[in-house]
Specification:
The chain has about 230 residues and is of the alpha/beta class. The protein contains 8 helices and 7 strands; from the N terminus they run H-H-H-E-H-E-H-E-H-E-H-E-H-E-E. Helix content is about 40%, strand content about 20%. The chain is globular.
Length: about 230
């Protein structure tokens, strides 16, 4: 990257990629507009990263996808579009308002029947999924409260199978993940996530730093059953 490149360039490049590759379509644009109108936090994945989630789902031929953190359903739409025939996304959301907006967005996108929204805190609903035998999931995407990421990783392993792909968002946090003495619970949770990844021999994992319309951040990409 040029030394002079900054956030304005990152955003311009994201816009270029989205336009050239046809990433933003009416259903996704309407979902973002509905989220803004409802006053939801503007923390959805970027369009380019949403397309990446769809591609990962296609790459693993996902029939069962678990999403931790629905928000307004933008990433849920992307995951549902990547499902194999007859597949289903189970997405967990603690906020009733967010879930209501997500249901409307999914319905407008024609994907309501491919998605089940589970209400409640994820650490309460995840054990219920296990008790029901809802897994194993082919792909797990976690984008919820960062302090709980080590727990979400443990549940992804528990509800997965050999070959399950795991994506965890917002793990670089503008470089603050390097702060070993942080008092920020989200940073501490992210560092604990990396400790858990390093200790879990059943996982092969990496982290990818990203820049773009969402600033400087990144995501973890891991596969279960590929430990070395």
């Amino acid at each position: 990257m040029s030394e002079t490149a900054g956030e304005a360039t990152w955003q311009d490049v994201d816009a270029y990629v989205e336009e050239r590759l046809g990433i933003v379509d009416p259903a996704l644009a309407m979902a973002l507009a509905a989220n803004r109108e409802a006053g939801l936090p503007t923390i959805d994945v970027s369009p380019a990263h949403g397309r990446m989630l769809e591609i990962v789902a296609r790459m693993v031929s996902a029939r069962r996808v678990l999403e931790i953190g629905t928000l307004g359903g933008y990433s849920t739409i992307c995951l549902a579009r990547g499902l194999a025939e007859g597949g289903r996304v189970v997405t967990l959301e603690a906020d009733p308002k967010h879930a209501e907006v997500a249901r409307a967005n999914l319905a407008r996108a024609g994907l309501a029947e491919r998605v089940e929204i589970r209400m409640g805190k994820a650490l309460d609903t995840l054990p219920a999924l296990e008790a029901e035998g809802a897994g194993p999931f082919d792909l797990v995407f976690a984008d919820a409260d960062k302090r709980s990421n080590p727990d979400y990783l443990a549940w992804a392993v528990r509800l997965g199978r050999p070959g399950t792909a795991i994506v965890i968002d917002n793990v670089i946090r503008d470089g603050r993940v390097l702060d070993a003495h942080t008092a920020d619970a989200d940073i501490a949770g992210t560092r604990a996530l990396f400790d858990a990844l390093a200790a879990e021999r059943r996982l092969t994992a990496t982290a990818v730093q990203t820049v773009g319309s969402k600033g400087y951040d990144g995501f973890v990409l891991a596969i279960l059953g590929g430990g070395c």
